[in-house]
Amino acid sequence: MIELIRGKYKTISIVGMAKNSGKTVALNYLIEEAIENDVPLGITSIGRDGEILDIVTETEKPPIFVEEDTFIATASGILDLGDANIEILKATDYMTPLGQIIIGKVRQGGYVQIAGPQRLSEIRKVADTMLSLGAEFVIIDGALDRFSQAAPAVSEATILSTGAVISRDINIVIEKTLHRVKTLSLPKIEGEEIRESIRQIMERGQIATIDLENKIEIIPLKTALNSGHIIGDHIKDKVKYLVIPGSLVKSTLEDLIKSTRRYGDIEIIIGDGSKVFIEARDWVRFVRQGIKIRVLDEIKLIGITVNPYAPAGYYFDPRDFLAKMKSYIKHIPVMDLVLGGE
Amino acid sequence: MVFMDERTREALDFQYVLNMIKTLTPYGNMFKRRLKAFKQGEEDKLISELNKIEGLLDIGNNKEIMGAIDGIFSHIKDLRASIRRGMEGFILTEVELFEIKNFLYLIRDLSGLMEKYQIPVFDDTDIRPIGELEKILDPENTGTWTFYIYDAYSEELKGIRRKKQDLEKEIRREKKAVKEKIKEELGLNLRPDSSLVVSKDDRELIEKIEASPYLNYVSETYMTVKFAIRPGEGLKTLENQLLLLRDREEREELRIREDLSKEIGKRNRAIYRNMGSIGRLDLLLSKVRFALEVRGVKPEITDRRIIKIEEGIHLKLEEILRAKELKFTPISLEIKSGVTCITGANMGGKTISLKLLGLLSAMAQYGLFVPAKSMVYGLNKFIISSIGDMQSVDSGLSTFGGEVKIVQKAISMSHEKGLILIDELARGTNPEEGYAISRAIVSYLRDRDSISLLTTHYDNIANLEGLVHLQVIGLSRLDFEKLALEISKDDKMEIINKYMDYRLKLVDKDTAIPKDALNIARIMGLESEIIKEAEKHLKY
What pTM, to 2 d.p., does this model score? Predict the structure, then answer.
C-alpha cells in the first residue's frame, strides 16, 4: 500500500465508511509498512467535536504502534497513556477537550494514542509542521460523518475503508461503497477565476448563485438544510452555478426540483465529495432528473480496503468479496489487508 | 473611597483608552487588570512610573527591538499553576516540564535582548535567567527547545533503555529468523505484524501449517484461520524480560519527574519573580506603545490643586470624527479649586470639554501619557461625574431624580480634594426651579476643596463672585448669509463642525451666554416658518 503514496503525496487521510469497517487495520498496516521501509512518518487524527466523555468512549481510538523517529500530533491529555517514549518538540495553542495538541517525536518505539486537532486549519498546520520536521508523509486518521470535519478536505490523497459491517447483504455493501466512491470522486469545477470566487463564497459560509456574466448573488440563508425552496426562488434565468457550502442533503435537492424548473440547467457546487449525505438510490434518481454536481476540491482516492468480517459475527467469503468489489471498482486499487495482496 | 465609579468610567470612555493598552503576556494581562490610579501622596511613585515610560520611548520607536521583544512575549504562557504544583510536591507531566523549559529559554533570550539593546532595567522589571534550572532540564546540554526524559538523568534509566533496545533487536532478529524459515519451508510470507490468515478451503496448507513448529493458531472465523509466529522458549523469555523492563523504565521515569518537579518547586521564587518582571515590563511597554500611538506627552505632576491642559484631544471622539473625515479641534483649559463654568452654544462641545478634562485627568493619574501638547496635573482623591442622561430604568428615577442623586453624592464628597464634573446642571426640570437649584449648588461648591467643572445653559449662574467662566467661542464669527448657500448639504454635522469654533476662552463673569440655538436649528434644517415664528417670540 505504501507504494501508492511514496513520492506522490505528502498527506494521506484514511477514512472508514462506518465504524469497524477496517480503518484501524488499514492505518496499522500502513504504519507497519512504513517501519519496514524505514520511512519516517507523521501521524495525527481529526478530533471529534463534543464533550470529553463522548470523545473517550464513542470514538474508536485503539492504540497505535509507532517506531522510533515517527512524529505524532496528539492531545496532551492522552500523551502518557501509551508506552512509547516521546520527546516533546512543540506545544501548540490548539485546544481539545483532551488538552492542547502536542507535537512529539518517538524516541523509543511503543504504543501511543492519537487524538488530533478539531479544526481543519489546525490539522493542516500540524501536518505541515511534521513534514518540515522530517516526516516523509503524514497520515491523518479521519472520519466521514457529519460530526467530524472531513479529513479528505485537508489531505492530498485518501484511502477509504469499507466492509461487511455496513450490511449483511454483500450487494448492499458493494452498492454503498460504489456510491461513496462516486460521490468522493465528484469532478471539480474548472476555471481559475470562477474557482476563486467560489472559494471566497465558501470561506464566508454563504449560499450564492453565479450567473452567466459571473455576477454573484448571495442568498441570505444560514444553511441550505430545509431551505431548498427558498434557494429555488433565487435560480433566475441566467444563473449558471449554485454554491452550497456545508452538507448537501436529500431534502435540499428535492425542494429545489419542486421550486424551480431550471434545476437541470445549473451546476451545484459543493466544497468536496465528503459533503454529500444522500443515499445511493436518491442520488441515482437526482442524476437521472438532471441534477449536476461539482466540487471545489477534488478528493484523490488512491485505495480502498475491504474487511469481510463484521463485529456482529457474520462475514462474507473474503475472496468472493474482494473479487466482486474489484469487478466493480477498476480504476482504484482494492485490497484485503487481512487476506493479503491486492 | 473609589477613585472613579462605574458610571464615570463609562461617561469618560476610560475603558476605550484602557483597551488601547495591549499587553501580550498572561502576566502583563494580570497587571493590566490590576491597574489602579495613584493616590494623593503617591506623587513620587507616579512621577517615577511616568519617567519609566519616558525612558523607554526610544526603544518603543525602534521596530527591530520591539519586534524581537514581541516575538518573545507572544510565546510566554501562564505557568503559575504548574509552578505551584511543583511547590506543593506534585509530579509535573512531561508537557509541563517542556513548557517550563521553554519559559526558561525565553527569559534567557529576553535577558540577552535587554542587554544587547541596552534596554533600561528597573527594579521590578529585572529579568534574571535561572541557568541552574536550564541545565537541569537540558542534561545532555543540547540547547534544543524540546523536552524528553533524557537518558542522562540516571544511569539506571540509561541502562534500562539500552537493555530494552537490545532486547527489542534480539526479538526482531529471532522473529525474522523464524519468518525466513517459514518462507523457506512453507513458502509463505507473513504480514508485517507477523501473522498469517489462511482460507479454510486450503485444507492442505492448514495441515502443513499446523504441523509446523514455527506457527501457532491464534483465532478463526468460519472461513479463515489466523496464525502467528509461535514464540519458542527463547522468544518467550525475551518478551517477558521486555515487559519487566518497560515496567522498570516507567517507574524510573516517574522518579525522575518527581525529582525535576522538586527542583522546580524549590526555585519557585526565582521563577515567580521573573513572571512578575515580565508582566510589569509588558505593561510598561504597552504604555509606551500607547504613548507613541496617541503622540502623548508626559503630564507634569504637581502638588498644587490645578489641572491645566494645552491642546488636549479626546481619543474616542477623534476616532469617530476621523471616520467621517473630520478633525477634532484640540481644547485647552485650566481649572483650579472651586467652580469653573463652561457656557456657550449648543453643539459647541461643552460636554466634550468636560469629558476631555475628566478623561485626561484619569489617564494621568493612572500613569499614562496624555494626548495633548502639555498637561499639568495635581492628583485628585476621586473623580465623580454627572454626564449624559441619568435616567435609570432600574431604580425608577427620572432624569432629574437620577441627576440629583449623583449630585448629592458629589456634594457629600466635595470637602475632599476631588474632581467633580457636572454636565448641564438641572437640565431635566423646569427652567425656573432648575436655575434656582443650580445657583444654590454652584455657590455651595464654590467654597469646597474639590475642583468642580460644570456646563450650563442658564444665564446668571456663571456670574457669581469667585467663579471662573469659560465660554465656547462657537458660531459667533459666522456669516449666516454665506452659510445659507451651504445649507442644502446633506451632512449638517459637517457644516457645524466646519464653522464651530470649539475653543474655550476665559470671559468676564458677566458675559452673556450666546444665543446660538436658533442658528443651530437652522443649520440642522428646522422648518424656516418655525424659525421665523421663534424669532418673533424672542423679540419680546
Answer: 0.80
Between the alpha carbon of residue B355 and those of residues B14, B252, B513, the distances in Å are 10, 66, 21
**B134-192: pLDDT as tens digits:** 999 999 998 889 999 999 999 999 999 999 989 988 988 888 888 888 888 888 877 76
Whether residue B464 is predicted with pLDDT greater than 80 in this model: the reply is: no
The alpha carbon of residue B40 is apart from the nearest alpha carbon of chain A, in Å, by: 43
CA distance B478 to B499: 7
Pairwise pLDDT comparison (B511 vs A146), residue with the higher score: B511
**Complex ipTM above 0.85?**
no
Nearest to B106 by CA among B85, B83, B133, B87: B133
Evaluate if residue B391 carries a pLDDT over 60: no
A338 to chain B nearest CA, in Å?
A: 7
Region at B524 (left for phi over 0; alpha for psi -120 to 50; beta for the rest): alpha
Cα distance between residue B456 and residue B441, in whole Å: 12
Please state which architecture CATH assigns to domain B21-130+267-291. Answer: Orthogonal Bundle (1.10)
A312 residue type, one letter: A
Q: What angle do CA B241, B246, B252 make, to 5 degrees?
A: 125
Determine the pLDDT at residue A341: 45
Same domain, A175 and A196: no
A115 and A261 in a single domain? The answer is no
**Domain limits, CATH 3.40.50.300, in chain B:** 298-539
Among A38, A81, A87, the residue to mutate for chain B (most B Cβ within 10 A): A87
Mutating which of B224, B242, B260 best tests the A interface, going by the most A Cβ atoms within 10 A? B224
Least confident of A222-231, A300-309, B68-77, B492-501: B492-501
Nearest CA in chain A to B226: A338
Which set of grid coordinates corresponds to residue B269? 521564587
Domain B298-539 has CATH 3.40.50.300: yes
Nearest to B17 by CA among B329, B352, B360, B326: B360
* Cβ contact, residue pair B223, A79, below 8 Å: no
For residue B290, the distance in angstroms to the closest alpha carbon of chain A comes to: 27
Q: Is the Cβ pair A319, B199 closer than 8 Å?
A: yes
